[in-house]
Structure to design on (372 residues):
């Protein structure tokens, strides 16, 4: 019998001494200058992040949820409107649609990539549909060519939920560069994480950019001039400064995540009882999460916990079956693939630099528990 190891799901502490020192130095500059809200450190990050993703503008906001909320507001989506999205995502995606008074229309997903099934979208488009909000789940970009084609055909807007897809690519273009607007979260556990709450909205459209600049700061166009009723949704200076430091590491960390995924694949691919992640054509998956499908995700999670392995399920209960959205009256069975996959998914420990011994230990434990 092997000795039990403890394998955490994720590690958000900067293990790299140099990174910690760089961040502390950057924070020192923010404190020195007292530039705490928006300001030069946020602007600097916005420029770099827009350049990294390949868009004209990036706007720092207070969280990924806020980014989604302001993106919908900027497009004028509101009561009576419908927004097409998926049910297997973090609840914030649907909450943001609810915040503006619109209705989320959930479309089923592709079983292999876990992203929206484009073949099922047309049936769900109505007179009220204003936008599609695809989620690049787990770090894999949706089938963007098809989405853009549908959006053009029905004159719909696209808002990308790229909160899990920093640096992910589709046909050589980065997540966040496809939609009218794209939303990112820098929650500390994301591939690019702040040291607190933060988010961003990307766009190439100058008018939308101007609108979001107002929306995030009380509708202000200049001091004491407010052209609309906005919000306090600003990014803070320390987050901008920390994100600028960490952005330089993003590609390296994503490459390490891909190496971890390759090692898991090597150990698990031949094992019939599970399905390892599929990196679809022309896509570069950045493995925000490494998700397998097995006969019973909750059961395997419990068994692995007894071996000291911390795993999660993303997401064990789809949004259309959550109590919070019971007013939409969705029935069980309405999204068969989403519901089936929900029972099977398990997210294995994943972070850049996850040691090989831990990957092997986790893989062996999975084989053992699914064999008996
Ligand atoms: C993290 C996340 C969000 C919300 O971001 P916050 O910064 O936590 O508000 C929204 N959508 C998805 C898919 C996410 O993973």
């Amino acid at each position: 019998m092997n000795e039990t190891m403890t394998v955490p799901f994720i590690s958000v502490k900067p293990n790299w001494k140099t990174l910690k020192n760089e961040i502390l130095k950057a924070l020192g500059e923010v404190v020195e200058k007292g530039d705490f809200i928006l300001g030069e450190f946020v602007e600097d990050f916005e420029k770099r992040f827009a350049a990294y993703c390949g868009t004209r503008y990036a706007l720092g906001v207070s969280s990924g949820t806020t980014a989604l909320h302001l993106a919908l507001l900027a497009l004028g989506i509101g009561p009576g409107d419908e927004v097409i999205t998926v049910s297997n995502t973090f609840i914030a995606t649907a909450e943001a649609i609810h915040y503006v008074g619109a209705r989320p229309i959930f479309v089923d997903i592709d079983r292999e990539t876990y992203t929206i099934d484009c073949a099922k979208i047309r049936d769900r488009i109505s007179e009220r549909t204003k936008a599609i909000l695809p989620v690049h789940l787990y770090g894999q970009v949706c089938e963007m060519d098809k989405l853009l084609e549908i959006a053009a055909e029905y004159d719909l807007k696209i808002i990308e939920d790229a909160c899990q897809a920093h640096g992910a690519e589709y046909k050589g273009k980065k997540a966040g560069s496809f939609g009218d607007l794209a939303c990112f979260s820098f929650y500390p556990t994301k591939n690019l994480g702040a040291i607190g709450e933060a988010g961003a909205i990307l766009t190439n459209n100058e008018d939308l950019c101007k609108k979001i600049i107002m929306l995030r700061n009380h509708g202000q166009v200049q001091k004491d001039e407010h052209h609309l009723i906005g919000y306090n949704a600003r990014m803070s200076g320390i987050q901008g400064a920390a994100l600028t430091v960490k952005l330089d590491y993003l590609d390296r960390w994503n490459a390490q995540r891909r190496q971890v995924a390759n090692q898991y694949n090597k150990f698990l691919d031949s094992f019939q009882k599970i399905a390892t992640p599929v990196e679809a054509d022309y896509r570069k998956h950045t493995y925000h999460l490494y998700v397998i499908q097995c006969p019973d995700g909750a059961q395997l999670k419990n068994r692995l916990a007894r071996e000291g392995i911390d795993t999660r399920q993303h997401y064990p209960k789809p949004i259309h079956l959550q109590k919070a959205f019971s007013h939409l009256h969705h029935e069980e069975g309405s999204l068969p693939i989403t519901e089936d996959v929900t029972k099977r998914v398990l997210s294995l420990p994943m972070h850049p630099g996850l040691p090989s011994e831990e990957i092997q230990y986790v893989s062996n434990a999975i084989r053992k528990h699914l064999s008996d």
In short: The chain has a mean pLDDT of 96.
